[in-house]
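During the no-cost extension, the postdoctoral fellow (Dr. R.K.) reprocessed legacy sequence entries with the updated structure-token encoder. One reprocessed record is reproduced below for audit purposes.
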Amino acid sequence: MNPLALLVLVAFTAIVPLGAASASPVQKAEPREIGLAPDGKRGFGMGLEQKRLSDLLRSKEAADKAFFDELSGLVMSTRIQLLNVRQHYVERGYFRLLSASAGDDFALLHSTYAKCYDSPGRELAPGDARAKALAAMLVDTRFNVRRDLTQRAQISVDDLEHARAVFDATQNGFVS
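Re-encoded structure tokens follow.
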């Protein structure tokens, strides 16, 4: 799958409000019986109670294990897509906007870009490597879309990983 297409899909599911699709079966059901994600696939639903979550986490059923494996697979595939975007940035020379010691940090690149975008004359010297990297980003019409999508994807992946860690810790006795 195209890395940009996956990021668009992730971002779209994050920004489409629940009320956007009036024909959705998710909206017609009661919140406690939903158990579906906004995209219609299996999820936790809106009214998941602590006991039901604990039962789900302890379940030995193949469907429940497959559900959690799918969540782990989603994290992995999204991380791979983010690495593809990172490689694209490297090939385009976008990380030259950062100091050499900063490496290839997405968050730092995106915040530096926003800062330089607002006041390039104050932040950059004419003709230097950083100014050329910023110019390359400015003429790349897809850069701002990629920037927004990578930020949203990173936040979603981090949230999912943190939730899984809390679930695992709760079930294994590390959290009460």
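The CA atoms of residues 34 and 45 lie 5 Å apart. Residues 4-34 have pLDDT under 50 and may be disordered. The remaining legacy entries will be reprocessed before the final report is submitted.
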